[in-house]
Write a structure and sequence with these properties.
Elements (H helix, E strand, L loop, with lengths): L3 H13 L6 E2 L15 E6 L4 E5 L5 E2 L4 H13 L20 H5 L10 H12 L4 H16 L5 E2 L1 H10 L1 H12 L7 H12 L1 E3 L1 H7 L1 H4 L14 H14 L5 H7 L4 E3 L4 E6 L3 E6 L2 E2 L6 H14 L9
Antiparallel strand pairs: 1-10, 2-3, 2-9, 4-6, 5-6, 7-8, 8-9
The structure holds glutamine.
Length: 311
């Protein structure tokens, strides 16, 4: 097996010179300004090392990666009752698709497509003002990453709010089926703000450590979720974390991962490490083009896969 530090440097060097970087998302105007040449990667191992390469300390918009953390919080509040309002199946449709919602009576396929995450925001809002819920989510990420510098990028949040017509459509549609208990604009206020949280690859890799370590922070030993819940969140990331590109990601990379249209991917190698990669250019499914490629190469070099025998 390759040396991790060397493998990271090799992959980052290769990605830095790649010409074919995909397209930066522009449907959220503020995201369209990001430099497509950026590339960062960070790995936090269960034995306490943090290794990085490229632009690993530059914050970017985590977008849908935040859905892993809001799901974790909502499961903590609601437990399995959450699954009455959100499914656990890959959608096979784009992240912002509305078509399935009609056939399936306003119950989104899974918590990682936009509709599912808006329901999760609605759950987190119960008994709170939107700003309290947003504060709770940011606080959770700071706690997990042990880094108080993590904040919401207000300009990105405002940009999403101003142009999020599809998300308003999804929220209104679900409300008509009774699967949103708050006014759509309140649930969306939470949703847009958690998508607009900015984090670096290093901060994200650190925040995801509990997923790779049976629900516990490997540094402090503190339990974040039960081992069973960590396993299940990983299963959802593997099956639903890349929208209609989830099967391809599982095939090529073979570890649980969650992407965002900011070009980030959070991934976990259960028992080994948590990692995050960032390259803003996207493929046709809205997943980071070079991010996926970098994870594919790294996983191959390190023999990381949930489908291969370890050791
Ligand atoms: N905030 C984005 C949206 O609602 C999240 C999408 C994503 O990262 N895939 O469209």
């Amino acid at each position: 097996m390759a040396d991790l530090e060397q493998a990271l440097a090799e992959v980052a060097a290769e990605m830095a010179v790649s010409e074919d970087r995909g397209e930066v998302a522009t449907y959220i105007p503020q995201l369209g300004r990001v430099d497509a040449k950026k590339f960062g990667i960070a790995v936090a191992t269960n034995d306490g090392r943090v290794l990085t390469a490229g632009d690993a300390d530059e914050p970017f918009s985590i977008q849908s990666i935040s859905k892993v953390f809001t799901l974790t919080l909502a499961l903590g509040e609601k437990g399995d009752a959450l699954w009455k309002r959100v499914g656990r199946e890959p959608s096979g449709n784009p992240f912002n698709s509305i078509v399935q919602l009609e056939h399936e009576s306003g119950i989104p396929r899974n918590p990682f497509i936009n509709a599912g995450a808006i329901v999760v925001s609605d759950i987190l809002l119960a008994g709170h003002q939107p700003r309290e819920t947003i504060g709770e989510i940011v606080h959770f990420l700071r706690f997990l990453a042990n880094d108080e510098a993590i904040v919401v990028d207000r300009e990105v949040a405002a940009s999403e709010q101003a142009t999020g017509y599809r998300n308003f459509a999804l929220a209104n549609y679900m409300r008509s089926f009774g699967n949103l208990t708050h006014a759509p604009e309140l649930a969306l206020g939470v949703y847009f703000h958690h998508c607009a949280i900015a984090m670096s690859c290093r901060q994200l890799a650190l925040a995801g450590r509990f997923l790779a370590n049976g629900g516990r922070n490997p540094d402090t030993g503190h339990s974040v979720v039960s081992p069973e819940r960590a396993r299940r969140i990983n299963a959802l990331m593997l099956t639903c974390g890349h929208y209609d590109g989830s099967g391809d990601f599982a095939f090529r990379v073979g570890i649980p991962g969650k992407s965002g249209v900011g070009g980030g991917i959070l991934a976990s190698v259960p028992g080994v490490a948590s990692l995050a990669v960032w390259s803003p250019g996207l493929n046709a499914n809205g997943n980071s083009k070079l991010g996926s490629l970098a994870l594919e190469k790294l996983a191959r070099m390190m023999n990381w896969s949930v489908f291969a025998p370890r050791g």
